[in-house]
Amino acid sequence: MKKNNCVFPQKNMNQKVLKAFIELANTGNFQRAAERLCVTQSTLTKQIQALEAELGLDLFSRIKSGTILNKNGHLLFNEINNILTAYDLLKNKANTLTNPNNLSVAFGMATRDLAPALINNFMTSHPQKNITLIDLPTAAQSEKLLAGELDLAFMREQSGTFLKQMVVRRDRLLLIYHQSQKRLMEQQNIIDILSNNIFLCIDENICGGTYNIISTFLKNTVATANLKEISSYPNILSLVKENFGCALIPESACHHNEHKDILSVPINNPLTIWNIVMAWNERFNNTLRDEFIDYCHEVITTTSGRPVSL
């Protein structure tokens, strides 16, 4: 009999515990993770301890600037994230079958601030509706939109797709570094910096789209480039804050106002600028989706002062 390699939660690995792991991995900070999960730090600590006890593994390491995944945590991050995504998709599928007032919306790192805010504001005038947010990478969003398994997605703009797209913002690549390196950075041009340093970047398996943007840009601008892949943006920021190296990350992931020791420089190149869009499949009718799109179009156009439809 063929073995099933999927990992399923055991007795202590309920959704709350798994979400606690993902949120702490993504924020790198117990206080911020607890706030986002709406629990106390003590509860979050107990949830992480329960998961580690169930697995028989330590998953995090503490550094001066926060908490980062250790080797075990890195190896299990994708598996745990996939389990939570599968739960969300199953729940959404069941809700869709029983309630036509439901809407499934996917988002990623680039719209972690924008997508929830738009949905919360929309829901104040549509309290009878139910919108489920699902965290998915762009490739998975496209696949599920085309299959009709997802109603709407905030994602990186796609070319050569049947999906309808509406630009909601632009993103770009930043070079970030520790403030102690400021003078050295200012004395070199960007090409020399990129050619002579090892750079941290997001793991290709975590965010393949961003990794491809970085690698394509480097291949087209420098002779040689050394990249070290890291499993999450908070971990990258923590390592840069501790002066373990420089990094290339999207502006949407660079909350360095929370890391006062980190400085950033935008990389001005057509290869390092891209659109973030709302995408949907017009082959599937959904009145609530269309209402939400109209609402977002109005809000974004008013905010940006320019039309956003493609």
Automatic annotation (TrEMBL):
<dbReference type="Pfam" id="PF03466">
    <property type="entry name" value="LysR_substrate"/>
</dbReference>
<dbReference type="GO" id="GO:0003700">
    <property type="term" value="F:DNA-binding transcription factor activity"/>
</dbReference>
<keyword id="KW-0805">Transcription regulation</keyword>
<keyword id="KW-0238">DNA-binding</keyword>
<dbReference type="InterPro" id="IPR005119">
    <property type="entry name" value="LysR_subst-bd"/>
</dbReference>
<feature type="domain" description="HTH lysR-type">
    <location>
        <begin position="13"/>
        <end position="70"/>
    </location>
</feature>
<dbReference type="InterPro" id="IPR036390">
    <property type="entry name" value="WH_DNA-bd_sf"/>
</dbReference>
<dbReference type="GO" id="GO:0032993">
    <property type="term" value="C:protein-DNA complex"/>
</dbReference>
<dbReference type="GO" id="GO:0003677">
    <property type="term" value="F:DNA binding"/>
</dbReference>
<dbReference type="InterPro" id="IPR000847">
    <property type="entry name" value="LysR_HTH_N"/>
</dbReference>
<keyword id="KW-0804">Transcription</keyword>
<comment type="similarity">
    <text>Belongs to the LysR transcriptional regulatory family.</text>
</comment>
<protein>
    <recommendedName>
        <fullName>HTH lysR-type domain-containing protein</fullName>
    </recommendedName>
</protein>
<dbReference type="InterPro" id="IPR036388">
    <property type="entry name" value="WH-like_DNA-bd_sf"/>
</dbReference>
<dbReference type="Pfam" id="PF00126">
    <property type="entry name" value="HTH_1"/>
</dbReference>
